[in-house]
Amino acid sequence: MSQSPLDPKQLAFRNAMAHMSAAVNIITTDGEAGRCGITATAVCSVTDTPPTLMVCVNRNSAMNAVFKANGRLCVNVLSGEQEEAAKHFAGMTGVAMEERFALDPWTTGSEGLPVLEGALANLQGRIVESQEIGTHSVLLVELDDIHVREEGDSLVYFSRAFRRVERAA
After folding, report:
1. In 3-state terms, what secondary structure has residue 13?
2. Short-list 103, 136, 108, CA closest to 122
3. Where are the domains of the chain?
4. Is the entire prediction scored with pTM above 0.85?
5. Which percentage of the chain shows pLDDT scores above 70?
6. Low-confidence residues of the chain: pLDDT under 50
7. Which CATH architecture best describes the domain 22-155?
């Protein structure tokens, strides 16, 4: 499928978003529709009562339907050491989906989801709402299990590149 050229407003928006630092996450799921994962930066907190995240997934991604069909996902907030995993799950390295899960230490979380060991946080939950907006599905995820690691640097995406942010001493 060929993409049409971006209009000036779309290009300006993309350039502006490149200046917005964002945490890098691998979003995973497993269930009747299959196991998969994607790298995503479009993740943010919605509320702490109940603990809820917003996760945006491109509607053209084959994984979009898998996430929705399974109805559950895990947001793995990546540490600075996990850039290679981010590249694999972003599809930048040509590694097949099942191989991606063999390259790093993954476990099965309490919710039956793939959980990346060494991530700064693993947030497992249920998709409670989905809305289609433009090119993306906006998924609201109510969290059932949260694990936080208290050490490690963060991996962010800024100016179209992965960057490591060191934890203050």
Report:
1. helix
2. 108
3. 22-155
4. yes
5. 98
6. 1-2
7. Roll (2.30)
